[in-house]
Design goal:
The chain has 153 residues and is an alpha/beta fold. Helices cover 30% and strands 27% of the residues. The chain has helices at residues 42-53, 55-60, 73-83, 96-101, 142-152, and strands at residues 13-14, 21-22, 30-35, 63-69, 89-91, 104-109, 112-117, 120-124, 130-134. Residues 3-153 form the Thioredoxin domain.
Length: 153
């Protein structure tokens, strides 16, 4: 089962920087979950920095941000420290969270096909209901669009 707009997102707990992340623990606040392919790659670095640079505005709007990729906790800790990211990064090595949100897609890189994370963002309201989805995200201007949606919710 994957999540759908205007339906409750099933609770999940996953290993993250700073300790396990549980969706249920964030009831009462909006949650922005963004999925990205890999730590320390150009697009993922830019996206993380954009969320970091707007973090205070997300907090002022009552939202928590969390990033998700299949990288290890150690990789995430280094990436988080290097970019000074003020929000947790979930390590989804078993792809359980990725499967819940339906972000694993067949991708092509240098003519070869492989399964990878489709850059995607999900906005969950204070009651745990999925309100907005962005798939096949292009990094420029994306964070501003997500912030506008959070502020409008």
């Amino acid at each position: 089962m994957t999540v759908a707009i205007d339906t409750p997102v099933p609770d999940f707990t996953a290993p993250a920087t700073g300790g396990d992340f549980s969706l249920k623990a964030h009831r009462g606040q909006k949650v922005v979950i963004y999925f990205y392919p890999k730590d320390n790659t150009p697009g993922c670095t830019t996206e993380g920095m954009n969320f970091r640079d707007n973090y205070a505005q997300f907090q002022a709007a009552g939202a928590q941000i969390v990033g998700v990729s299949r990288d290890s906790l150690r990789s995430h800790e280094n990436f988080q420290r290097k970019l000074e990211l003020p929000f947790p990064l979930i390590s989804d090595g078993d792809e359980a969270v990725c499967q819940l949100f339906g972000v694993i897609k067949l991708k092509k890189l240098y003519g070869k096909e492989h399964l990878g994370i489709e850059r995607s963002t999900f906005l969950i309201d204070e009651e745990g209901v999925l309100r907005k989805v962005w798939r096949s995200v292009r990094v420029p201007d994306h964070v501003a669009e997500v912030l506008s949606a959070v502020q409008a919710l």
